[in-house]
């Protein structure tokens, strides 16, 4: 869709990346550490100042203690972290449960290692989990469950009840958990993110993945991290060492210093909610319907009153003939699921969003 947007000069609200400047202070810190000579390999698990700052952030936000030496690993983005965690446990014939609509790297990553994806389908508008279906999906071959919270593209957040239901289901088996929490600081309307780190019985079997690209508007830097108990971290690093080995040194050091000012993540919900609310207000004056976004920097819009086209065709038509690129939500399911929904990224500057709203109101 991004390529199609470029081809037709459309406003690109498809791929999830910001188009506004990165903090000048953060850029200056990268320059500072480059000038100071931090330009060679970082330690394989990551620079200790950054791991210590992550541990401090987790303590401040979730009141949970993680050890920077044995439980935190810096990765080349969140997708590499997800891939490496899967590589750590998934073997040929293993089954991996995912919740669909799902981030598009999950399925191919599982299949690379010979695993079989078992999807649990969630549907608009609430994308609620049927926990009986989850229980029934677990077999003797189930090795891993992947959770995305807040969800991309569902835009929904898991509640305390969701986590406790999963905890109850898993209490009598040895299934591992991979919790993709890259949008942990982008939650709206005063709600609080519920991390798997806050549930000890789940945490002991989990890898938690986070992203500095989402946190700091630096998706092109490809920096993320994983938090896991010591044994799972040890096994994760055995793959990480021969896959990536180490991650960009001056940027690690810069981020470590930058995170000392907690406003960079504590102010993020309000910053993104203002963009979400602007887009919602504009769509309410259009023929699109809006599925409430609880988190992430995406919004789902329905086009039931506009067209009977399948989602892929509608998204292409919207790009080519109306000048706005989105993504069909059906693309995030493994088998056809047409709900007449498109995903819109609102992590854009004011001019871009204004132009997009103007065009969408004419559809």
Short description:
The protein is an alpha/beta fold and 363 residues long. The protein has helices spanning 2-8, 24-35, 48-62, 78-89, 106-112, 131-137, 160-170, 200-203, 212-216, 230-243, 249-258, 263-266, 268-283, 311-322, 350-360, and strands at 11-12, 72-75, 95-100, 116-121, 142-148, 176-180, 206-211, 224-227, 289-291, 298-302, 324-325, 327-328, 341-345. Helices cover 40% and strands 16% of the residues.
Query: How is the main sheet built?
Result: 7 strands, mixed
Number of strands: 13
Q: Output the structural class.
A: alpha/beta
Total domain count: 2
Lay out the secondary structure.
Elements: H1 2-8, E1 11-12, H2 24-35, H3 48-62, E2 72-75, H4 78-89, E3 95-100, H5 106-112, E4 116-121, H6 131-137, E5 142-148, H7 160-170, E6 176-180, H8 200-203, E7 206-211, H9 212-216, E8 224-227, H10 230-243, H11 249-258, H12 263-266, H13 268-283, E9 289-291, E10 298-302, H14 311-322, E11 324-325, E12 327-328, E13 341-345, H15 350-360
Parallel strand pairs: 1-11, 3-4, 3-5, 5-6, 6-7
Antiparallel strand pairs: 2-8, 7-8, 9-10, 10-13, 12-13
Helix pairs in contact: 2-11, 3-11, 4-10, 13-15
């Amino acid at each position: 869709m991004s390529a199609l947007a470029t081809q037709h000069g459309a406003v690109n609200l498809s791929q999830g990346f910001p188009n506004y400047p990165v903090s000048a202070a953060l850029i200056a810190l990268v320059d500072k550490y480059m000038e100071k000579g931090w330009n060679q390999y970082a330690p394989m698990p990551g620079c200790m100042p950054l791991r210590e700052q992550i541990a401090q952030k987790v303590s401040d936000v979730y009141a949970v203690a993680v050890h920077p030496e044995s439980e935190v690993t810096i990765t080349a983005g969140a997708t590499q972290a997800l891939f490496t965690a899967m590589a750590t446990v998934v073997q040929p014939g293993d089954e991996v449960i995912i919740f669909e609509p799902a981030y598009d790297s999950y399925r191919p990553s599982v299949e690379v290692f010979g695993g079989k994806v078992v999807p649990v389908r969630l549907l608009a508008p609430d994308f609620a989990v049927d926990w009986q279906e989850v229980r029934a999906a677990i077999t003797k071959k189930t090795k891993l469950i992947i959770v995305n919270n807040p969800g991309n593209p569902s835009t929904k957040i898991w509640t305390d009840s969701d986590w406790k239901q999963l905890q109850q289901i898993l209490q009598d088996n040895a299934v591992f958990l991979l919790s993709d929490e890259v949008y942990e600081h982008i939650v709206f309307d005063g709600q609080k993110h519920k991390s798997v780190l806050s549930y000890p019985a789940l945490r002991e079997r989990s890898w938690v993945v986070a992203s500095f690209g989402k946190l700091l508007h630096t998706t092109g830097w490809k920096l993320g991290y994983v938090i896991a108990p010591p044994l799972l971290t040890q096994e994760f690093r055995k793959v990480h060492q021969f896959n990536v080995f180490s991650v960009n040194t001056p940027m690690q050091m810069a981020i470590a210093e930058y995170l000392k000012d907690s406003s960079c993540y504590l102010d993020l919900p309000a910053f993104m909610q203002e963009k979400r609310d602007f887009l919602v207000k504009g769509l309410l004056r259009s023929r699109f319907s809006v599925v409430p976004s609880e988190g992430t920097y995406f919004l789902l819009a329905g086009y039931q009153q506009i067209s009977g086209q399948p989602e892929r065709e509608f998204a292409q038509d919207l790009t080519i003939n109306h000048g706005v690129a989105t993504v069909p939500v059906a693309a995030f399911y493994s088998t056809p699921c047409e709900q007449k929904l498109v995903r819109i990224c609102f992590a854009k500057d004011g001019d871009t969003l204004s132009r997009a709203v103007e065009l969408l109101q004419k559809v």
